[in-house]
Design brief:
Blueprint (H helix, E strand, L loop, with lengths): L1 H6 L10 H28 L5 H5 L3 H9 L6 E3 L2 H11 L8 H23 L11 H23 L6 H6 L5 H20 L5 H16 L27 H33 L5 H17 L6 E3 H9 L6 H21 L4 H13 L5 H9 L1 H16 L5 H20 L3 E6 L5 E3 L12 E6 L8 H14 L5 E5 L8 H16 L3 E5 L3 H9 L9 E4 L2 H12 L5
Parallel strand pairs: 5-6, 6-7, 7-8
Antiparallel strand pairs: 1-2, 3-4, 3-5
Helix pairs in contact: 2-10, 2-13, 2-14, 2-15, 4-12, 5-11, 6-11, 6-12, 7-15, 7-17, 9-10, 9-15, 11-13, 16-17, 17-18, 19-20
Length: about 550
């Protein structure tokens, strides 16, 4: 039964009763009414036909909720993933063209397949390679790019940025629609967060556009949309050049979209009082992307804002998502003709309001206070993402390289200190706290790291340098409690250090060695007690023995 639940996690859902269904229906309707206009707006952001945003909110959302462990997440189009899709395909095809759609479908299929494989292999931990500072910086840079890309439509520009600087042409009605919608949405988020203002705004703007003759006067609208349900879509095979061009974007979309999921899933798990199963969510999210591609749509992800609204509206299980899918389905069958009259300025306002919350410049200040190297990494990631547009993946790759370089530097330079006895009874950095030595002719050290191939050289160097500066040393004591593991290189270097100390008649004392480290050293024959090698289970035992052996310190 447990294996069956692994493959079909929806079998564990609670059986709905009247009390549960009332809350699930309310939450589903609330989210469904929001995802419809957002889906259309995000599809335009991705350079896709507007109706594909609705397609991406139907079957993919259903598949995700059935095969994910986090059943209260709202899966579908998201601003960040759509921007990555647009950036990835720029230069490979014309936005909105049949070839563009084919490439977007391949992005969804490849990214989804990769997520499914990672989930089945339980390799979800690989996604932790992207650190929080890198993701924060990339997200904020992407938010800036999204807002900048939407400003021409929002402000009623009749041409792009370049043409506007040379010969400004603004449609006053479009600017009115955009700015008015922006103000209304900002106010509604504060005053009526659960009210479906977005959908009402879309319907009202469509009616007003028809009455005022907005389109006839040259105003940009969504235009005619395909009616009916999505049909199965099988893309043609990619050329080798196109496949190679999509490889890095697929990796970035896989990483970023699932990290979007993680931010929502962790909140959902905490509120639900359960542990997050990241591998199962990888499978569910991957299957959703594949389903979206086979519908002729684009890669999906979990929306933080819609997921938060789902929780706020009272959703307790995945039944709320099923209700929202039904709402979107009915809207697709009924409201498609109406949506064709919606001004693009309104869609731009919807996108801007959705992503403006991602802008958190105070995060860079907070990072500077916590860790300056990470703050520098975040700043460089932010700058590279902006400057490399439309190749946004370069920002993520740069941040990843800097983060791994910083991590590797620390692993190669472990924290090794000489310890002294603090007045509070703890062992602390002797030089930092200006403490006397534990005993004369003694070097007492502690390494706060694993003893492995990365740190072994620095460990050996610390002891050798101290011996060179103190030729009359008689004792070395390693407080080994922080050393959690040891590898073959660590064992070899330990043996070399032990032999070197023994040749000089120096006694090696080891305190608090952990069992995995002790076993590895004993199996290699490097931990046989003798007059020049002493082991102690606790630091107190070691301190007592050292002070009895050497007498009080002279400092």
């Amino acid at each position: 039964m447990k294996q069956l639940h692994r493959w079909f996690p929806f079998l564990t859902w609670p059986r709905p009763d009247r009390a549960m269904l009332s809350g699930e229906v309310m939450a589903g309707i609330t989210v469904g009414l929001m995802v419809l206009p957002q889906g259309v707006a995000y599809a335009v952001l991705a350079g896709m036909p507007p109706v594909t945003g609705i397609y991406a909110s139907l079957l993919p959302a259903l598949v995700a909720v059935l095969w994910s462990s986090s059943t209260r997440l709202s899966v579908g189009p998201t601003a960040l993933t759509c921007l990555l899709i647009y950036a990835s395909l720029t230069g490979l095809a014309a936005p909105g063209s049949a070839h563009w759609v084919e490439l977007a479908v391949w992005l969804a299929l490849m990214s989804g397949a990769l997520q499914v494989v990672l989930g089945l292999a339980r390799f979800g931990w690989l996604l932790n390679l992207i650190s929080s500072p890198v993701l924060t910086a990339f997200t904020q840079a992407a938010a800036v790019l999204i807002i900048v890309s939407q400003l021409p439509a929002l402000l009623g520009f009749e041409t792009g940025w370049t043409q506007m600087l040379e010969q400004p042409r603004i449609n006053p009605m479009a600017a009115g629609f955009g700015i008015g919608s922006l103000l209304l949405l900002v106010l509604s988020r504060k005053l009526l967060p659960r009210f479906p203002v977005v959908l009402l705004l879309v319907l009202a703007s469509a009616g007003l556009a028809v009455v005022s003759g907005f389109e006839a006067a040259g105003g940009a609208v969504i235009g005619a949309m395909a009616a009916g349900l999505p049909m199965p879509y099988v893309p043609s095979l990619l050329s080798w050049h196109e496949f190679s061009q999509l490889l890095v974007p697929v990796l970035v979309i896989t990483l970023v979209s699932f990290l979007e999921t993680a931010s929502s899933a962790k909140v959902d798990s905490q509120r639900g009082g359960k542990q997050w199963d990241q591998d199962q969510d990888l499978i569910g999210q991957g299957l959703a992307k594949v389903a979206s591609g086979l519908c002729g749509a684009f890669a999906t992800s979990s929306s933080f804002s819609r997921s938060a609204l789902n929780l706020y509206a009272g959703a307790r299980t995945g039944w709320a998502t099923i209700v929202s899918v039904i709402v979107v389905l009915l809207a697709l069958l009924v409201l498609t003709p109406v949506l064709s009259h919606v001004p693009q300025a309104v869609l731009a306002a919807i996108v801007v309001v959705a992503v403006i919350g991602l802008l958190k410049p105070q995060e860079f200040t907070r990072l500077w206070q916590i860790s300056r190297p990470e703050a520098v990494t975040a700043t460089i990631t932010f700058a590279v993402t902006l400057l490399s547009a439309p190749r946004l993946y370069l920002g993520v790759v740069t941040g990843l390289i800097l983060s791994l370089s910083h991590f590797l530097y620390h692993r190669l330079h472990p924290r090794i200190i000489e310890v002294g006895l603090h007045p509070d009874g703890s062992l602390r950095d002797r030089h930092l706290w200006k403490l006397p030595p534990l005993a004369p002719d003694l070097y007492a050290l502690r390494m706060d790291d694993e003893l492995d191939f990365a740190s072994a050289s620095m460990f050996e160097r610390a002891i050798v340098e101290y011996l060179g500066a103190h030729p009359h040393l008689a004792h070395v004591c390693l407080f080994a409690q922080p050393i959690n593991s040891i590898d073959a290189t660590g064992v070899e270097r330990f043996g070399q250090i032990r032999a070197m100390l023994a040749e000089r008649g120096i006694t090696l004392h080891i305190s608090g060695i952990k069992l995995p480290v002790e076993r590895a050293l004993r199996r290699s024959g490097e931990l046989v007690e003798n007059p020049l090698l002493r082991l102690y289970r606790t630091d107190a035992e070691a301190l007592g023995a050292l002070q009895r052996r050497s007498g009080p310190a002279d400092d």
